[in-house]
Structures are given as C-alpha cells and as structure tokens.
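hey so i finally got around to running the thing on that chain from the lab meeting. sorry it took forever, my laptop kept dying and i had to restart like 3 times. anyway pasting the input first so we r on the same page abt which one it is
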Amino acid sequence: MNLSLYFKKFFNNSQSSGIILIFCVLISLLIANSSAAEDFQHFLDKEVGTHLFGLEYPVSIWINDGLMAVFFLLVGLEIKRELVEGELSSFKNASLPIFAAVGGMLVPAVIYSIFNTGTEYSNGWGIPMATDIAFSLAIISMLGKKIPNSIKIFLAALAIVDDLGAILVIAIFYTEQIHWSYLLLSFGVTALLFVLNFLKVTKVVFYIIPGLFLWYFLHHSGIHATIAGVLLAFSIPTNASNVEISPLEKLEHKLHIPVSFLIMPIFALTNTNITFSSEMVAGVTSTLGLGIICGLVLGKLIGINLFSLIAIKLKLSSLPQNSNWLQMIGVGLLAGIGFTMSIFIALLSFKGEIPIQDEAKFAILIASFIAAVAGFTILSISSKENPELEEN
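ok and heres what got predicted. didnt touch it at all, straight out
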C-alpha cells in the first residue's frame, strides 16, 4: 500500500485515536512510576506565558483548560450538527441524554454519600458525578462500526451535559470565589456570538476571536474554561441540509485530526501520571474508595439507565435509533470513566490532604478501568447480536 494512503487510512480510522490514547495512558503511568517522574512533574508545573493580562500558567493548566477547550469545541460542533440535522433532531432523542445525565449525576452522589456521610470523606460527594468525556469517547470510538452511530452520539451528548453539570457543581460547591465581573463579561461575549449567528455571519474567524475572549473571561471568573468551547460551538452557523457545507461542518472537519491525534494524546500523557504507593492501595477498601468505585461503576450504570427507562416509559424520550438496552448498559458503564474530572473534584474536595487525595486518585483509576473494560465488553457483545451493523 502507498505510504500516504496508509497514513490517510490510519488518521481516518476512528479506532486509531482510541488506541493511541490508551498507549499514551500506559506511557504516562510508566513515567510517573519511574526515575523520570519528578522531572516530568516539574515540566507540568513550569509556568509559561506572559504576566501581561495574567496569562502565565503551568503547562498542565494550558493543556487542561486551553487545549481541552478545543476538544470541547469539536464535540460541541458534533452535538449541534446532530441536533439540527441528525440523531438528536427530534425532541424525544435530544431529551434522553439530558434525563440520563441527571440520573448519572444524582445516583452516584447518593451512593457515595451512603458510604461516607458523617466521615472525614463526606465532602467528596461530587467525585463520582463526573464522566471523563475524552476517555469515554476514545473507548467507544475503538468499536468503530460495531455499534450504531446513534449510541456514540448519545454518549457524547450525555457526557457534555454531565460535564456541564460537574462544572456547575464545582462552581457552586467547590469554588472558593467567583469573580462576577469576568463572569458578566463572559455572558456579554456569549450574547455577541449568538447575535453574529442571528445576523448570519458565516466567516468562522469572526466567531473564533470572540471565542478566545470568552475563554479568557471564563478562566478568570473561576469557572472551568472548557465550557467556552461548547458555547462557541453552539453559536457557529449550520444548516439542515446535507448538500450545502456549513461553516460548522467546515470547522468540524478541520479540527478532527488535530484533536484526535494531538490534543487528546497530550491530555492523556499529562493527566495519567499517577505515582502508586502502598497507602493508595489500602485506601481502596475504605469508605472513600468504596464510595468512589461503587458510585462511578454502579451509580452511573443504574442512574443513566433508570432515568432513561423512566423518560421512555413516560413517552418523553425514545431509545437512540437502531439501539437496544444492552448497548445502553454498555454506555452506562463507559460513563463511569470519571478519571480527570473526578480527580479534579477530589483535589478540590480534600485540599492539602495529600494522603486522602492519593487514595481518591487510585480509587478513581480502578473504577475508570473497570468501567472501561466492562463497557467495552458489553458493547462488543451487543454488536454480535446485531451483525448487520458490521456491514453498514
């Protein structure tokens, strides 16, 4: 095969990005548990940027708040396109991820609280509420055409609603101070973006520039700045036609490869550097560890599917097209990959309490591993029950 054709096929294969992401996770874990761990952490903590306008941050912040905003932009574009012309264009389909996300946040928080109410760990109830959108989508992408596209869209929409909910929880319960002047400026820029859409401005650059200011204002407000990517995505014009290529579709196409093969691998490398210790292992059987693991694995599974079932029985929603409940169970498990967002909430929950933070990190890693393997396995089994998907 011609080398250029090989690379083209590789980069267009949805499974490739997931494989690279898992490889980066393994590399990061190896580094974190080697003699290079301290140097790598120093690199992540190194501040880069400029003092001008307060734009000097550690490398890890530029990756998690900066590069990941671009990832959220791409996912937001995909969701908006599906809302306008795809799987989520009907109310019943669009409402299901919202109901599922609510259940997927409430039930894990309740399960965690059952284990930890009245203990020193009680403040960590928000830890199992979050779904790591990057890792969950990477795992499901490895299944390729084995599952219907509607299930992938459902997981993406569910994860976005879940992450927005987690950001809201962080802002209300875990943020020490919100800078309201910057937040008001964020509202103003958001309004400007949708005015541009209303005026039918089609040049993407006229959205990107205000989008950068939106990111800046949100970051300085104390709110997790990745939400800027979603807000920007929903302001960019599209159409309900499959013939005419819209500004949204053009930008989505341009972002696919850099996000999948550069931003997400960098994200995995810098966020999986967990150094193992004996204390972390001991913490798994504590109420903290059990609350996190049961919350993420069982809580997400039960909450997502229970609330989905209720919404469908009440005829408020319907199952994603060509899907079944076995696949919904698989998605419920994949949503239990809490990982980076869960770790972030754990750090906020137990500030300055390093041993507890380490125990929480290890429990999150175990829960995310269980959820990923179980979810992938269930979805793989479901594809064998629907062999026609392989042919599409």
